[in-house]
């Protein structure tokens, strides 16, 4: 699945019991890259390598967790913006309209329900 300038891959790239070298993968791709790494129960873990802005959207049925590995990740929530630096994480609850952006090349991990539509429900 790829929409607009985003390279979004929802296929599960790694099976259970398979080593995932997140650092090497992150260095081998260009922004906007989003790959589902693995599935854990009913959730998926995705790698994002981003620089720039994503569009406003929300997820009707799934919360979304962001964790920053490198760079700076900003989550706009309408009434406020949350800045995340490496080692910091944040949950956007289902139904909450948000827009994300990275003023510099940023590497993030995301955890969300396996059925989530990465570009949002609306």
Plain-language structure description:
- The chain is mainly beta and 122 residues long.
- It has one domain: Jelly Rolls, CATH 2.60.120.10.
- The protein is built from 1 helix and 8 strands; from the N terminus they run βαβββββββ.
- Strands 1, 2, 3, 4, 5, 6, 7 and 8 form an 8-stranded mixed sheet that branches.
- The radius of gyration is 13 Å and the shape is globular.
- The model has no long low-confidence stretch (mean pLDDT 91).
Which geometry do the CA atoms define? globular
Structural class: mainly beta
Q: Compute the average pLDDT.
A: 91
How much strand? over 45%
Q: What's the end-to-end separation, in Å?
A: 16 Å
Order of helices and strands: EHEEEEEEE
Biggest beta sheet attributes? 8 strands, mixed
Topology of helices and strands:
Elements: E1 7-9, H1 22-27, E2 33-40, E3 43-53, E4 64-70, E5 73-76, E6 81-84, E7 89-92, E8 99-113
Parallel strand pairs: 1-2
Antiparallel strand pairs: 2-3, 3-8, 4-7, 4-8, 5-6, 5-8
Features of the shown structure:
122 residues, eight-stranded mixed sheet, 1 helix, 8 strands, globular
Short overview:
This protein has 122 residues and is mainly β. It has one helix at 22-27, and strands at 7-9, 33-40, 43-53, 64-70, 73-76, 81-84, 89-92, 99-113.
């Amino acid at each position: 699945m790829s929409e607009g300038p985003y390279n979004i891959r929802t296929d599960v790239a790694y099976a259970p019991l398979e080593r995932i070298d997140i650092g090497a993968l992150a260095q081998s791709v260009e922004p906007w890259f989003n790959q589902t790494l693995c599935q854990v129960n009913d959730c998926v873990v995705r790698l994002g390598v981003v620089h720039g802005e994503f569009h406003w959207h929300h997820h009707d049925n799934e919360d979304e967790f962001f964790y920053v590995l490198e760079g700076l990740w900003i989550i706009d929530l309408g009434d406020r913006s949350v800045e995340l630096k490496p080692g910091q994480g944040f949950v956007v609850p289902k139904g909450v309209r948000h827009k994300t952006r990275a003023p510099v090349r940023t590497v993030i991990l995301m955890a969300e329900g396996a059925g989530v539509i990465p570009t949002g429900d609306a």
